[in-house]
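Notes to self after the Tuesday call (sharing in case useful).
The group wants a holo model before anyone commits to mutagenesis around the pocket. I volunteered. Ligand is magnesium ion. Logging inputs and output together so the record is complete.
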Amino acid sequence: MKIREIKAYPTSFPVPPGGVRLGIGQSVKRDCVMVKVTTEDGIIGWGESHHGRAHTAIAKLIETTLSQLILGMDAADTTGVWAKIYKYQLGSHGMGAACAMAMSGIDMALWDIKGKAVGWPLYRLLGGSRRPVAAYAGGVALGYQPPAQLIDEAQPLIAAGYRAVKLRIGDTVRDDTARMEAVRNAFGDGLTILTDANTGYSIGDVRQVMPAMDALDIGWLEEPFPAHDHHLYAQARGYGRTPLAAGENHFTRFEFSRVLEDRVITIWQPDLSKCGGITETLRIAAMASACKIPVNPHSSMTGVNQAASIHLLAAIENAGYFEADVSHNNLFRDQLGSEPWRIGGDGHVLPLEAPGIGVEVDEGFLLAHPAIEGPGYV
Ligand SMILES: [Mg+2]
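Result:
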């Protein structure tokens, strides 16, 4: 079970013209970093490191510095591997987002290996059961199109079983409000409407939009501001009763400890491929559980991270929603490996049953889709 080799694949595919527009710009390509860990006895585990808009750099960090630190360690010792990277890399130079993302994919691959070694699916290894997990329709979808088109996009999702959808806002307050109203009017009070500004709002925008969100019973307002704008979140909290959500850009339990102390962000969204892996998300979920805060993992980009997120949700007691990536033509969900999840007619998903994370990764896909340099949103 000793770690013999760590390989990282920075991978990309172009998005056809007319890609989704949201608070961080227009999508022009998709990137990811897949991490392959092989043990001396030949078990292969796969994990995802979020690309961090620097997928080739993240892959390099994994294959050079981090790999050299942990080769030869016991693959089952996820706590020890985490602690070693923390001691020699993450802790000493401030909380580096790149290192947190790089180590996340390694940690995820090690949990995949552990499951395969004992023949158990990950949810079982984490202390969970094959319980249904409520999903919302999210991912790079439901963007800044006119209200009528937005309803056309949401209609088949609701027909497929989703009882919650996430709209992209952070455009103008007027257009955002028109989109939220249109969806509420089209589908009624039974639908849970969540929103994500992708850091596109000013404090004045939130002051303006909050009364409409309260009136429309919006489930949460996600990332109105960048993660480090603690004072803006605190100010925004006073403008209404719609809960504030964030976490996909908070790294490790050390950044979530500030969130816990502030008592302002009450919906937590750690990303297993960013915040320090499955090991660290379990710690963050435990911190949140002390205050009965639900955990709703952010789950882009690949089916591997999505499947791992469902396992985790089936194993923690403060599970919120699974973010079902309903974006069109996400090859990282549909072609990179075997099917990661399927929405049930009642809006729920189930964790996979195969040992480990349960997604069979196609290395040929990774080789056929090498990294494309440049920004993913313009
Ligand atoms: Mg988001």
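Two things stood out.
Residues 3-119+363-368 form a domain with the Enolase-like; domain 1 fold (CATH 3.30.390.10).
Residues 196, 198, 222-223, 248, 298 surround magnesium ion (CB under 6 Å).
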